[in-house]
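FAQ: What does a multi-protein file look like?

Like this. Sequence, then tokens, then the next protein.
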Amino acid sequence: MILYAIGSAAQTKVVDTCALTGPNTAWKKLYTNANSKAIQLQLIQEKIKKDSMYHTSEVPLPIPCGFARATQNNLPAEICAVKILFSLQYAKGKTILLDLNKNPEYSPLVSKLNSENIESISYYDGSRAKSIYGYNGASGVFFLATKNKEYIKEIQRLILNKSK
């Protein structure tokens, strides 16, 4: 019996692919094929919530300090295992990252991502995203912009409560 357990353990397949690469690629394809802004925003909501199961950990040197990468179940993170970033601009020069791990209090904002609250969506991939967010932008960055006054007030209220 013990030999069977040891033999079975030795046959366990080790996965050496990045945890987020496949899902991110599939999700971007879904997003690109969405035929309306409402569907795109619903996909963004779902992605932000689903990716909240991935936690970030500090990247070891030689990558500059302050950058993080995603890991799940305490497995070592791969270079490509970075979450897609979602940045919400609510005033000129003022943005927040909609990362529910770091800011779970932003959950109501994510739930209210709809056509009434979001004026525009832009996507940066590759080197352009990395030039803004460094390593954290490796999987791309979605920039959401709002001019809805009530939504902006809610954002400001949440930021104020967070700083207390």
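And here is the next protein:
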Amino acid sequence: MLAVNRSVLQPPSAHCREIHLTAIIRHGTRYPTTKDIKEMQQLHNNVLHNALGEERWLQEIKTQWTMWYTEDMDGRLVQKGVSDLKHSGREKLRSGLIQFMTSSKHRCVNSTLSLKAGLTGLWAITDKEFNHTMNDSLMRFFDKVHQVCAGSSQHLLSCDRGGPVQAGPGDVEAPGEDRRLP
């Protein structure tokens, strides 16, 4: 484990210690999703047509900000994302057995394929197959957790509560219900 943000993640007891680590790598460096691109396009349009003022910084934004993201980019991996995951795959190969699991989202499947390409490309492994499984109920659990779906502005609050995640797979709480592990 390289680092833990202790300001966000606290053990339930001072006597707890880490004994197992599972890494979930959702995807590599990517373009924004269609939803984010639409919001950026709206902001760009608002600034160009509605922002008032003669300040130099505002004029620079209005004349130099080029909105080059397009909706067809929809979260697709950039070349750096592919390269980063290949590099990560090479490093992790030395650690032993690796189980690959992904959601069905194209960016997640592409990330998994890139990581596997890094594993097989390191020593030109052609006689070994690394399979992956798709599990949307586990890898996209947040689609069913009300507090996470509430929106990015509430993201920190939803992460801090912890109740929905601690309830376990398939046991999603009703909105407003707050269960904690003993």
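Q: Is there any per-entry metadata?
A: Some entries carry free-text notes. For the entry above: The longest strand covers residues 100-102.
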